Design the sequence.
């Protein structure tokens, strides 16, 4: 196939050369000689001026005279024009020939035949020789490029020598693995000692610009096919490709000083001996050791050292189980006794935290980096078992750290993410997180990814675990270079890590290091790997540990003596032994020591809230007025907004004039007033800038100029805190995780994530289950993230109706069967004890208050808000400034304030409900003229359950029948949650009847008529005072 391609290409070569030459003549004629000279010096500039597309996708056959070759030709021609002596004499001859042959008629002439226009034998011969030289040069250039693209396929990456890292044992046909393959390029062994001028797109020559083909092959082999496999030619940026080529192709670049070698050995000693120490002391404990990839520790330390030398002083890391203890001990440098004591079964857990330490809790550590003597902060984020789920959380926290220190380019804080090979390939969140990496409001300006590619996932062979050649292919979507490296070559690993850190610092883009290694034991130390991977583990058993291999190497090089090596080992063993002794004195495991994001000054020294009160959340009418004006106007000159939006703003102005707010205005006022108080507000999610329901409009777009936008919220006060509102990528898992991480960095910020529709929260279920609902209990970590989940049965069908409140409620930690003890600070105490707060506000004012309360509380809890859809524009769903003014607060319940409340003894039925259904019930009550007989009470905060307030209301209506009415189906919504709580509230003395839709598997009907019938049925029963007459409870 390739052969036929080449001969086809060869016959077209003259045609292509002729047109290229004609093009060149025209083009260079336009340049002054000076320009030509400059272009030859700056290849990168030149290629962009000539607009050649340099890189094709790896694996596709490249046309022989594609843009790349023609750019080479251009390069040569420009150099020749500037100075004929500057190019090889063969090129000189070639250009003389072509320049002289005017006009050329080479069309349809096969390679090697004579041009019809040739006038003399001499001239013909010269021309033929010159064309051979050109063809050979072009062939060599193709060959170089082939290695750059496909060399990694034959690199020796697997330390076990069993599997191919790309899961493909075939050798690309265009790599020169035997001399006969030179024929593919029209070359043969006789060409091996011919000298070829090297193109600008390679650095294998070092200081030489021309070398023999034999040497070219050797150097390409060294750079691309040994222990490092590089994937970068898919990157659409010439400068970045050149940078990588220069880093890896330059001859002898992989040279280490003796001091560097010794440091590397010392780090390998620590990594290896740490695992061995744990194995000796706790032979029957799971450790998820890093054995088989001990080089991980020196690798991470190199990344950190180099990054620090480039200006980084804050590193935020996320990693799975494998090697976590070793990373804690030897990278983060957590006290060893703190790690060892966790293996003691007698250790008591401290009051807080569920003791999920060894493989999951995070740490935060400030220390001096010994290599640079710089003060640095390192944190490892707490993570659940769910592999890769921590990735977006780490990114969010990193973004926040950068944001709060004004680091807009990621020069001082960065993230490192570790991955397992199976998880990196298999988990979709990896892809979602990569897609955040270059978005303005989400970028952390480059993450260094390190894959511990032990070529197995639990018991699963990689050939059954992925469809891509490498586990890292997902990174190609963001043009991140991927450096595969054989982990048994520590120097190659360290070099790759150094380049990766420099890459991040130079280009502020992601990069992946694939440490191809093995797993010495089973998935954990108790597992038998021979059951499933017998051949692999026969080889593993014969494997010489990397520490021994490297120590032997250094000793054979004379860099190290045996005595020095043994001392290094003994010193570290002693450190471990001493820590082990001290660990025995640790009696209590203080989980607080394992916080990845401490909030200095927010809590007392002992980690308690400074008070257990919450100030009223209202603000002055002037502030409301001011924000209202801001929300109804365009704060900048010469800005043309859409006429429809002008109408909306005029409508808002009218409301504000009358001291009325709708939903959008209430949100504006909550955000705006917090900004005034110096609280940063961030709202992120799909289409949040305008709002899915076109009600928000926080970003105005000029109708005449692209990308000219204005965020009026940022123009409210001169000294206000900044406001970020950002449309996210179409991801829930990734973006919610990101915002959770963002909220972790600082308690004094309101961080909100909005789902497009509430039901989409379930694609982020892992973040909800593993982090948000249980994070504090497992990891002592408070978090005040706010989730806005549009919810409501409005006939839109099963897909857009339910935010699944039942799931959130089911995960609340409150005891449903116990009436809580009432104290003076009951409300705040209840909030303090809960794992998250769930509200369904029925008025804009209450929405305003609950958002503000989130910040005024002396602690942080996640807040889940079921937000409205039709209520956004419902004429009744409005609030007066009076409900938001100074002194007012969030109402946990909204009691009936109408006729029923005036004569409570006459009330026959008391309906409890939450959210939008209130408006349907209230309207129906008016229609039926039952305002005196039926009272309606709205539950605004569903969890924690307002037991005390409800008891007061129930007692107030002694003759009323109690009903829970919800528009959701019986098995969905709130009923299962409220039922037991109502029962304890009434001390099991009165029944509380259910009114609502029947149970259903789908959250809503897709048929509009059925929807309306169901609604009417529900209203009929709600106001049928005989409906439950003969029933007992
Ligand atoms: C999301 C998720 N699914 C399944 C598991 C169960 N599990 C734990 S480790 C593991 C294998 C991981 O393999 P790999 O990513 O290659 O890491 P390694 O253990 O080999 O270091 C699996 C499937 C998990 N922890 N998380």
Sequence:
């Amino acid at each position: 196939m390739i052969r036929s391609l080449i001969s086809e290409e060869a016959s077209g070569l003259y045609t292509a050369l002729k047109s290229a030459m004609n093009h060149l003549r025209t083009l260079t004629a336009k340049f002054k000689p000076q320009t030509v000279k400059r272009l030859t010096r700056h290849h990168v500039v030149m290629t962009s001026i000539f607009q050649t597309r340099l890189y094709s996708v790896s694996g596709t056959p490249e046309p022989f005279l594609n843009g790349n070759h023609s750019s080479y030709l251009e390069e040569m021609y420009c150099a020749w024009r500037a100075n004929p002596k500057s190019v090889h004499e063969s090129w000189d001859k070639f250009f003389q020939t072509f320049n002289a042959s005017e006009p050329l008629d080479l069309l349809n002439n096969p390679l090697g035949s004579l041009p019809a226009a040739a006038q003399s034998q001499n001239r013909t011969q010269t021309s033929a020789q010159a064309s051979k030289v050109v063809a050979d040069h072009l062939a060599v250039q193709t060959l170089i490029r082939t290695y750059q693209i496909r060399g990694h396929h034959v690199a020796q990456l697997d330390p076990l020598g069993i599997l191919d890292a790309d899961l493909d044992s075939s050798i690309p046909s265009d790599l020169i693995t035997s001399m006969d393959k030179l024929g593919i390029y029209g070359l043969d062994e006789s060409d091996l000692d011919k000298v070829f001028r090297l193109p600008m797109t390679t650095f294998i020559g070092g200081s030489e610009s021309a070398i023999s083909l034999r040497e070219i092959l050797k150097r390409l082999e060294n750079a691309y096919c040994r222990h490092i496999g590089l994937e970068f030619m898919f990157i659409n940026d010439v400068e970045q490709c050149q940078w990588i080529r220069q880093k890896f192709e330059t001859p002898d670049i992989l040279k280490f000083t003796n001091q560097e070698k010794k440091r590397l050995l010392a780090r390998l000693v620590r990594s290896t001996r740490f695992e061995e120490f744990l194995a000796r002391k706790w032979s029957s404990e799971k450790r998820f050791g890093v054995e088989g990839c001990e080089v991980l520790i020196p690798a991470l330390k190199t990344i950190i050292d180099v990054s620090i030398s480039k200006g980084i002083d804050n590193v935020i890391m996320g990693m799975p189980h494998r090697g976590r203890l070793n990373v804690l001990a030897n990278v983060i440098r957590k006290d060893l006794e703190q790690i060892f004591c966790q293996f003691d079964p007698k250790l008591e857990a401290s009051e807080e935290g569920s003791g999920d330490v060894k493989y999951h809790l995070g740490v935060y550590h400030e220390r001096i980096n010994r290599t640079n003597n710089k003060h640095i902060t390192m944190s490892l984020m707490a993570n659940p078992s769910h592999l890769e789920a921590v990735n977006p959380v780490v990114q969010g926290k990193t973004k926040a750290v950068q944001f709060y220190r004004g680091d807009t380019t990621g020069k001082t804080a960065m993230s490192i993410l570790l991955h397992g090979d199976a998880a990196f390939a298999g988990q979709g969140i990896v892809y979602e997180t990569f897609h955040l990496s270059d978005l303005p409001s989400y970028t952390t300006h480059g993450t260094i990814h390190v894959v511990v590619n032990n070529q197995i996932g639990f018991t699963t062979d990689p050939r059954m675990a992925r469809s891509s050649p490498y586990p890292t292919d997902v990174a190609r979507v963001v043009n991140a270079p991927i450096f595969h490296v054989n982990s048994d070559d520590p120097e190659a690993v360290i070099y790759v890590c150094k380049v990766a850190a420099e890459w991040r610092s130079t280009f502020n883009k992601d990069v992946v290091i694939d440490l191809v290694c093995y797993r010495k034991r089973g998935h954990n130390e108790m597992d038998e790997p021979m059951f499933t991977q017998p051949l692999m583990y026969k080889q593993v058993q014969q494997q010489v540990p990397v520490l021994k291999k490297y120590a032997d190497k250094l000793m054979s090089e004379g860099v190290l003596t045996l005595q020095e090596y043994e001392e290094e080992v003994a010193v570290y063993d002693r450190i471990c032994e001493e820590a082990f002794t001290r660990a025995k004195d640790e009696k209590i495991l203080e989980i607080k020591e394992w916080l990845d994001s401490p909030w200095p000054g927010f809590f007392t020294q002992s980690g308690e809230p400074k008070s257990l009160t919450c100030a009223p959340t209202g603000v002055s009418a002037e502030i409301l007025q001011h924000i209202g004006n801001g929300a109804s106007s365009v704060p900048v000159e010469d800005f043309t907004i859409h006429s429809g939006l002008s109408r909306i703003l005029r409508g808002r102005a009218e409301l504000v004039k009358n001291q009325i707010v709708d939903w959008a205005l209430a949100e504006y006022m909550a955000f705006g007033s917090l900004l005034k108080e110096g609280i940063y507000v961030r709202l992120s999610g799909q289409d949040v800038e305008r709002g899915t329901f076109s009600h928000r409009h926080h970003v105005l777009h000029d109708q005449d100029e692209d990308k000219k936008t204005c965020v009026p919220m940022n123009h409210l006060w001169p000294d206000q805190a900044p406001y970020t509102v950002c449309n996210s990528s179409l991801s829930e898992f990734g973006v919610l995780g990101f915002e959770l991480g963002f909220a972790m960095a600082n308690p004094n910020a309101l961080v909100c994530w909005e789902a497009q529709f509430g039901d989409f929260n379930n694609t982020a279920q892992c973040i909800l289950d593993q982090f948000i609902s249980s994070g504090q209990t497992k990891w002592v970590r408070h978090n005040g993230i706010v989730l806005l989940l549009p919810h409501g049965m409005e006939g839109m069908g099963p897909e857009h109706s339910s935010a699944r409140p039942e799931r959130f409620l089911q995960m609340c930690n409150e005891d449903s069967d116990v009436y809580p003890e009432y104290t003076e600070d009951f409300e705040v105490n209840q909030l303090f004890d809960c794992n998250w707060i769930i509200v369904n506000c029925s008025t804009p004012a209450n929405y305003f208050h609950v958002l503000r309360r989130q910040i005024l509380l002396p602690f942080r809890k996640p807040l889940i808000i079921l937000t409205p859809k039709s209520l956004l524009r419902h004429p009744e769903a409005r609030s007066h400034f009076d409900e938001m003014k100074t002194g007012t607060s969030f109402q946990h319940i909204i009691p009936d304030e109408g006729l029923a409340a005036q004569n409570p003894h006459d009330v026959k039925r008391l309906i409890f409900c939450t959210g939008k259904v209130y408006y349907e019930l209230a309207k129906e009550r008016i229609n039926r003229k039952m305002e005196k007989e039926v009272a309606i009470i709205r539950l605004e905060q569903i969890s924690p359950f307002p037991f005390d307030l409800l008891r007061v209301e129930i007692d107030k209506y002694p003759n009323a029948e109690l009903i829970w009415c919800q528009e959701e189906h019986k098995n969905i919504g709130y009923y299962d949650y409220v039922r037991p709580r109502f029962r304890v509230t009434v001390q099991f003395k009165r029944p509380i009847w259910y009114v609502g839709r029947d149970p259903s598997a789908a959250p809503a009907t897709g048929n509009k008529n059925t929807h309306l019938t169901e609604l009417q049925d529900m209203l009929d029963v709600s106001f049928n005072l005989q409906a439950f007459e003969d029933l007992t409870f």
Notes: Residues 1-16, 23-68, 101-118 have pLDDT under 50 and may be disordered.
